[in-house]
Design brief:
The chain is α+β, with helices and mostly antiparallel strands. It has three domains: 7-89, Acyl-CoA dehydrogenase/oxidase, N-terminal domain (Butyryl-Coa Dehydrogenase, subunit A, domain 1, Orthogonal Bundle), CATH 1.10.540; 97-198, Butyryl-CoA Dehydrogenase, subunit A, domain 2, CATH 2.40.110.10; 200-346, Butyryl-CoA Dehydrogenase, subunit A, domain 3 (Up-down Bundle). 53% of the residues lie in helices and 17% in strands. The protein has helices at 7-23, 26-33, 43-50, 59-72, 78-89, 109-112, 198-234, 246-275, 280-306, 317-329, 334-346; strands spanning 97-100, 119-123, 126-137, 144-151, 154-161, 167-169, 179-193, 236-237, 240-241. Helix 4 (59-72) packs antiparallel against helix 8 (246-275), helix 5 (78-89) runs antiparallel to helix 7 and helix 7 (198-234) runs parallel beside helix 9. It starts with 6 loop residues before the first helix and ends with a helix.
Length: 348
């Protein structure tokens, strides 16, 4: 049985890598991260032209693109649109769109299905939303937002254009994926998911978004590994490349072995989401447990291998490290995810 990507999928990877390398070298990605907007809005049209927003792409193609986006640390709302909004809408929106689910009563996607902190009032085609949503990814650079709210019939999901006066940016460690609060006071909205039916939609969001972040983490870890390996071969100490010393080479080898496992699990998670496999929840959780910490480990190891330069603001490594940490904490912790895996294995 052939578990490799198809020729077309590898061509998509090559095209994505080439474009990202040309358009988002580390210095430009850093400049955009530190800019007021945080991204280049023109890149959205480029993504459309390159096929990143093609509605016929499968989850496996998205996995390839997420990995390459992680390697380049692409700063833009592609993941939010594909991973958060796409599963709710059942299609990809044509404009940058995100999902607002977290609030004072719901920290993760599962608990959002029963939260009453944000409310929806109305019926038919006339609805208004009130409440505050927390830590919404890419909110300030999205044109539309899907909001999870509680109505008389249960929790549903509504869509509205992002009201600029309702967006409050919050201090964000990773400036390439910024967060914001959404404060709504009787804001008009369009019903997308009927009240009482949000649970299934949010479960689909969790599966796709976490699987794509696992692939993104693999790309980050690969970048850190490549950076470490290149430096270890070129940097000389006592007349020898520092990679010839075990204190350096063993760190790089540890990252390599961890990365291979994480990549396999991330690809498996993407396949499970794509095919609707029976063990999709377990596959996604295991991938998250492996890939996020692997990216963190790869960045921390790179800091050690690079020495003093790895700790400086001018070097891009800290930006990859911050994204890796954010991915690791998305919609859960290592402890909570291990508890899920243990329950799946021991409670059968």
């Amino acid at each position: 049985m052939d578990f490799a990507f198809s020729e077309e999928q590898e061509m998509l990877r090559t095209a994505a890598r080439s474009w990202l390398k040309a358009q988002y070298p580390p210095d430009r990605a850093a400049g955009l991260a530190d800019s007021e907007q945080g991204w280049d809005p023109q890149s959205w049209r480029e993504l459309e032209r390159l096929g990143w927003l093609d509605p016929d792409l499968s989850m496996l193609e998205y996995a390839v693109l997420a990995e390459e986006a992680g390697y380049a640390l692409y700063p833009g709302p592609w993941w939010s649109t594909v991973g958060l909004a796409g599963p709710v809408l059942g299609r990809l929106p044509s404009t940058p769109t995100t999902l607002a689910w977290a609030d004072s009563a719901a920290a993760d996607l599962r608990s959002a299905a029963i939260s009453m902190a944000t409310t929806a009032t109305g019926s038919g085609g006339t609805w208004t939303l009130s409440g505050t949503k927390l830590l919404v990814p890419d909110l300030a650079i999205s044109e539309s937002v899907l909001v999870v709210a509680a109505a008389e019939g249960g929790t549903g999901i509504w869509r509205l254009d992002v009201p600029t006066d309702a967006v409050l940016p919050v201090s964000t460690m990773d400036k390439t994926r910024r967060l914001a609060e959404l404060r709504l006071d009787s804001a008009a909205a369009e019903l997308i998911v009927e009240p009482g039916a949000a649970g299934n939609a949010l479960a689909a969001v969790r599966r796709r978004s976490v699987a794509l972040l696992s692939c993104e983490a693999v790309g980050i870890a690969q970048w850190a590994l490549d950076t470490s390996s290149t430096h270890a071969k070129e940097r000389l100490q006592f007349g020898r490349p520092i990679g010839s010393y075990q204190g350096v080479s063993h760190q790089i080898a540890d990252v390599y072995t961890s990365l291979q496992l994480s990549r396999s699990l991330a690809y498996r998670a993407a396949w499970a989401v794509d095919t609707g496999a029976e063990d999709v929840e377990e596959a996604v959780t295991v991938a998250a447990v492996a890939a996020g910490p692997c990216a963190v480990q790869a960045c921390e190891s790179a800091m050690q291998v690079l020495g003093g330069i790895g700790f400086t603001w001018d070097h891009p490594l800290h930006r990859f490290y911050k994204r890796a940490q954010w991915i690791t904490g998305f919609d859960g912790t290592g402890q909570s995810r291990r508890a899920e895996i243990a329950a799946a294995l021991l409670d059968r």
